[in-house]
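the three lines:
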Amino acid sequence: MNAVLPHLPALQVVIPLLGALLAGFLRRGGVAFALALAVSWIMPFISGAMLWQTLLTGPISYHLGGWEPPWGIEYRVDVLNGFVLVLVSIVGAVIMPFARRSVAFEIEEGRQAWFYCMYLLCLTGLLGITVTGDVFNAFVFLEISSLSSYVLIALGPDRRALLSAFQYLIMGTIGATFYVIGVGLLYLLTGSLNMVDIAARLDSAWPEYSRAIVAALAFVTVGVSLKLALFPLHAWLPNGYAYAPSWATVFLSATATKVAIYLLIRFYFSIFGVAIDVDTLPISEIIIALSVAAMFIASLIAVFEENLKRMLAYSSVAQIGYITLGIGLANQPGLTGGLVHIVNHALMKAALFLAIGAIFYRARTVRLTELAGIGRKMPLTMAAFTIAGFGLIGAPGTSGFISKWYLAIGAIDKDWWVLVFLIMASSLIALVYVGRVLEVVWLRKPTPEVARASDPPPSMLLPVLALASATIYLGFDTEWTVGVAGNAVEALLGGLR
Amino acid sequence: MTAIASPERLVLVAVLVPFVGALVIPAFHKRPNLRETVTLTTAGLLCAVVFSLLGPVIDGARPEANVFAIAPGLAVALKVEPLGMLFALVASTLWVVNSIYSIGYMRGNDEPRQTGFYVCFALALTSTIGVAFAGNLFTLFLFYEALTLVTYPLVTHKGNTEAIRAGRLYLVLLLGTSLVLFLPAIVATWVLAGTLNFAPGGILAGKTSPAILGVLLALFVFGIGKAALIPVHFWLPAAMVAPTPVSALLHAVAVVKAGVFAVTKVVVYVFGLDTLRQAGANEWLVFVASMSLLLASLIALSCDNLKARLAYSTVSQLAYVVLGAAIATTTSILGAGLQIAVHAVAKITLFFCAGAIYTAHHLTEVSQLNGIGRKMPITMLAFLAASLSIIGVPPLGGWNKWTLALGAADAGQMIALGAIMLSSLLSVGYLLPIVARGFFPSALEGESSKGTRIKEAPLACVIALGCTALLTVALFFSVGRVEQLLLGL
Amino acid sequence: MSMLMSLIEHYNYVITIFLMMTGLYIVVARGNMVKKLVGLSIFQTSVYLLYIEPGKIIGGTAPIIDPAFTVYSNPLPHVLILTAIVVGVATLALGLALVVRINEAYGTVEEDEIFERDRNT
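prediction for all of em together
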């Protein structure tokens, strides 16, 4: 055991990578699924152990290949990325059982093994971005996860999936290139790629090279914002989520954007925030303005969406607005709210997209008009959908309420009362788009399309129910969300200039 | 024995009893008689539990139960105090009667989805008791929102376009006001006072300026949309599409009473009567509540639909409670508490009567009711009793109005005093003509003499409305005990 | 004047930025998906230059430790860019593969025609 424990940070990435490699050689979907399931179920143990260790003894620094940082690549786990690692790995583990039937239903037998191979690669990339302490290494993982997610989307059953994947590829590559330009500028300024080292060296470069540093900040912000779909750089997301295979949508919506958000937080609070006084730049104001725009405009678009997957995708853009709002507020309650919402939104949106996947599995449609009365046919699935939907609104007793509570306190702490009302008013739009669906699925008479639908088998139903229960559970017990996030935020804000 | 039935435990049990009932009811989906037995047993049990708390509370005990803490400042905690005790008593007693009535009504009208109906009803009672016994603002808010959500299926029970539209208004208006106004007010209270726990004397004393207090009060009063203060009352008349037991529940037992109760509780335990009065932050609310009182009465006069008329009557009667809270003296709060109880009993009787008339004769408009008193004498007598109670005629009612008027006069709120008097007159105008039509149909209308054969609603309905009519009298004579309870504030 | 001098002095950056903008412009302005990918490649390649140029130190040699030399060029950018090139090739390959599949599914690789066909079905 002692031989394994020190290498957990590397294993977190290496195991899914090897799994992906192995899956690439497999031909049978079922075998590849078993492999993916095994890998997904190992991941939470590794990330959990690391988070536990960081909470007890502080950050873990792992030197890849034994090379000392800043020369070698360092994997560095502190509370913040331990938190994100646990989120990503738990989401992967919980939703994995759902994949078997859903993927078998939507993707032809010959391509199923590839699907799992791409999922494992994507998982590798996402965990890699999170665990690494090296900005260029993060770029490589960013591209690993992006390239595999393009393929995941392209495997969707509709031909528009190909188009969406292509558009995402263009946007994603531009984003990644912007990011790498920003990193290049930082490298030119400091001669280092290690996050901690850059932060330490940037300090002395600030007076002379402030313009270059601001340029680097701008490039990284735009690049990462494209990946996290910050309004108005979200154009790739709705179509990508709408036409991807159901299960891929679940996975990407719950993890991919969240990891990009993590990267942004890392750059703002652990690199730039440490080195320079970011309050002299209007970053906060810009981010808050864009977040509020996302909360309202994307929510309003969601209200008029007929395709449920697209509706939820726009809702994701809006909900990401809440998270970035927390980043913009940049105070203890605000940023805690943002971080907590990363988890809360990931879980509730996964529950919602899983429910949609189950609906597609049974009724072969995700258009709202064709789903009248499906609540009576698939009561458990739709009950989960309802609960998670109320989470999106932020009703008390759901996890969404907790996030909004902290965001509101963060806004008041800054004396921005208007923001409190804006946060709540945008929840009201969520009420409209969620309520519209609930009305149709519960109160209308069942249509012929859904007449023969019923709740899906346990392997699909249990993940949905588990995630919906989590939405309620995390509305009452916040030790692992607010507690850990608060801890991470304290460390982040404590390091700021 | 004392440990098992300690008041602290009973508080929790009171919230859990209807919840457990809601879980058991679906098990008897196929056997309606057993299902209704479960509902009645649960209601009876809840009533017994709540009444067993009454003694200790009158003796000055304030049993509380901290369920769990969610995060700093956010905790689910229950605490019984006189106002909540009164509200819980009213709600649990009327639930028993309402359950009996529901059985008659739902079977008499052959309504669909009855199991879901009873489940939601039981859940609504859980939320109501939760609101009544909430120990802090967050718990109050939690159960307040839960109440909106579980009554939504009841409002849309009919499932037709009209019901769905009404449900939409109901949900958006109630959730909307609570999210956009009530919740920010709670957040602000937390930031200003550093606590959300209800405390005698209020928690905002000396924490902020009078202007902010006034704004906060506005956020609370309009944010608690269930209090139906004009202009956030639209949902109430719209929700009339629901089956009558639901209307009765909305108007008398749970929803609106939860609203005005929450307003009163916020005024007493968050703002503090003295703080509010000294800051003068209540003045505008006295005016707005008085206007609401009169306007709603005037609208009620012009409604022909019986349930709509009763709905606007409710809007008006609720404004009395808000007015009592707004005047913010001990007397006026006492009046508000009495009004909650008296109006609940009287209004549920009126709705029972309206539902009985619908069940027996399918009549919904006031203009169709000529001679109904001869066909349904018991129902219309009960209607008369309840009307007199609402108007404030002893021995059916009146203490509530009297105490409120006294409070207004003491505080020198002449506008409020005038509004109380005038509105009582208006209520004569919109209630008694219904009774008059019922018993003394105009000789010109020949058709009324045709069907003088007595045809009452199903027995369960008649029993229920008779019970509540008698309760109005009983309440008048037990007013001393209610006052004794409320004076412990 | 000093602006111009500064531009001439940093001509390598000027070229990099020119290529960068050219690539980005092609991506945005062209509807043909293959051309878009060409633009994307140019855009990515310009970044390679951004990294590699400053690695060269005038008078420096290859970074092989030898008593005869004291000034070395920085080897790290080359290594980084080697990785970036691999990523770029993978992106291009995947992009082209998608274009082939799109051509099979829609019978065209022009974006506006594809939108047209989607709208009609």
